[in-house]
Write a structure and sequence with these properties.
Elements (H helix, E strand, L loop, with lengths): L16 H12 L43 E3 L3 E7 L8 E7 L2 E6 L2 E6 L7 E7 L4 E7 L2 E10 L17 E8 L7 E7 L6 E5 L4 E7 L18 E6 L7 E4 L26 E5 L4 E6 L2 E6 L7 E6 L8 E6 L5 E6 L20 E7 L6 E8 L15 E4 L8 E5 L5 E5 L7 E8 L12 E7 L2 E6 L3 E7 L14 E2 L9
Parallel strand pairs: 23-27
Antiparallel strand pairs: 1-26, 2-29, 3-4, 3-30, 4-5, 5-6, 7-8, 8-9, 9-10, 11-12, 12-13, 13-14, 15-16, 16-17, 17-18, 19-20, 20-21, 21-22, 23-24, 24-25, 25-26, 27-28, 28-29
């Protein structure tokens, strides 16, 4: 689910990206790792060409080369099939969920439903206007869930931005009935403490649970006061979704979590979680929680229980998201160094910061431990004007004991990489566009890149929906895996 972390004082977007460039630079220079504002508070770079219904063929990069402005480049084993441009390129696109022949793509103004029955020619079914960043999204049956983590005047789709210091302000979960794909209906809201930056769907027989991740409390916020050391659990009865309500707030960090600076310079203080991934078949979950990574037991969905917890106070600035491998003996954590709005894939930042951390899961039961093995970062340096850092991705279900995933890197594009050997991960395919801007830091690129039923779908913050085809002997077996739905943070058993 997603995505960029943010500051809790929300009064609309910060303005031009160039105004924030100096702040990003200062934060990145502060220590071994640093966090910075969420580019969701910024506007995507504009003034560049927008894609059409198709995509240019592109070419491969030469070693050490940075492509030209807006130029499409990709490895020989990836073929760009289609692009549906953003209706409004000034609005940031966010996460994606899938069900049957449809893709559901969030954006800071609402969400769009695409018909992807023909991946070469996806069609827009409907666009729903319901502002409230970042509109992290998931679907289950006829229900669609949206996360609102920007302080709004009320819970309606006509709300306007309002300071979090106002008691009447609202943030939380919105629920839509999507039985009629052309006419979704907003049926219920659930307010949650500190809003809902992301949420993760935990399926059940009679009820759906949502693990709501949020953070950054303040004594000045009536509905978001410290300590905020857990997650909100929302219970949604399948037969009566309008009775959805918060049923628990489990404490995950009784000791307060990572203290951040000055104890750990450049590291985010833990005041909640950013994103959670569940593996229902194993009753397991992993949490990326600002300054901490956690492994926990969800056999009792309303009472998740932490099994192990790790920190990386040298190279990780902000634990952002996590992915299990198919055998549930590894976890890939991402670090959103620079908040997603800084140029951290350049040579100066190096290979270990703003990267993925690969951890093996050792032991059994309550004795399971997360053991660090290596970092992975795209091997292609990006321009100093390109926001780039590890972001949302999913497994490619190749089976057979091999671990391969596809991942978004903002303007670093889409990377397919193999982590079968936890200590020696390597990229096997890529797709990217050249810099949006060449004279200042620009905000754009792939927010989420996921594999679904034979194709890769990427929601580009500024460019819209991209569809890619991967043709590689190492991933051919995945084309035989067909799902009827995919919420990436609710990982299925693929085989």
């Amino acid at each position: 689910m997603t995505s960029l972390h943010h500051r809790r004082v929300r009064k609309g977007r910060m303005g031009a990206v160039v105004a924030a460039a100096g702040l990003f630079t200062a934060l990145l220079a502060a220590g071994p790792a640093a966090a910075s504002p969420d580019p969701g508070d910024l506007s995507p770079a504009t003034g560049t060409r927008q894609g059409g219904a198709g995509l240019a063929a592109g070419r491969e990069l030469a070693p050490g080369e940075i492509p030209g402005q807006d130029e499409i480049v990709h490895s020989a084993n990836i073929k760009p099939l289609a692009n549906i441009p953003s209706v409004d390129p000034t609005v940031i696109n966010s996460d994606i969920a899938f069900q049957g022949r449809y893709a559901y793509a969030g954006n800071y103004n609402g969400f769009t439903i695409y018909d992807i029955a023909n991946p070469k020619a996806p069609k827009t079914v409907t666009t729903v206007l319901c502002p409230g960043g970042q509109n992290d999204i998931s679907v289950s049956g006829d229900l669609l869930f949206l996360s609102t983590d920007s302080s709004r005047s009320d819970d309606s789709c006509n709300s306007v931005s309002q300071p979090a210091t106002e008691k009447s302000s609202w943030e939380g979960i919105k629920i839509f009935d999507i039985k009629d794909k052309k006419n979704p209906k907003y049926i219920k809201s659930v307010e949650t403490a500190c809003g809902s930056h992301t949420h993760t769907l935990v399926p059940g027989d009679r009820d759906i649970y949502l693990y709501v991740a949020s953070y950054s409390p303040s004594e000045a916020f009536p509905d978001c006061k410290p300590p905020h050391d857990g997650i909100s659990v929302v219970k949604v009865p399948k037969k009566a979704p309008t009775q959805a309500a918060v049923v628990a707030f489990p404490i995950l960090f009784p000791d307060g979590g990572n203290p951040g600076a000055p104890t750990n310079p450049g590291v985010s203080k833990t005041t909640g979680c950013h994103d959670i991934t569940v593996l229902p078949s194993k009753n397991l979950a992993v949490g990326a929680c600002m300054g901490d990574g956690i492994l926990f037991d969800i056999s009792k969905p309303e009472q998740p229980r932490v099994i192990d917890r790790v920190q990386d106070n040298v190279n990780f600035a902000f634990w952002h998201s996590a992915t299990f491998n198919e055998r549930a003996n590894k976890v890939v954590f991402t670090d959103e160094l620079g908040g997603g709005g800084a140029a951290t894939c350049n040579e100066a930042t190096g290979p270990n910061r703003g990267a993925d951390g690969i951890y093996d899961i050792t032991g059994t039961g309550d004795q399971r431990k997360l053991v660090f093995r290596s970092y992975y970062k795209i091997p292609r340096h990006q321009a100093d004007t390109e926001n780039c850092v590890a972001h949302n991705g999913s497994l490619i279900p190749v089976g057979g004991g091999r671990d391969i995933m596809v991942q978004a890197w903002y303007q670093g594009g889409v990377s397919v990489w193999d982590f079968t050997d936890s200590a020696q991960p390597k990229e096997i395919a890529y797709f990217e566009r050249g810099p949006l801007t060449t004279d200042k830091i620009g905000v754009g690129g792939s927010w989420s890149a996921y594999y679904y039923n034979g194709h890769i779908y990427s929601n580009d913050m500024a460019k819209g929906l991209d569809v890619l085809r991967l043709d590689d002997w190492r991933t051919e077996s995945a084309k035989w895996v067909w799902l009827d739905r995919l919420n990436v943070q609710s990982q299925p058993d693929y085989h």
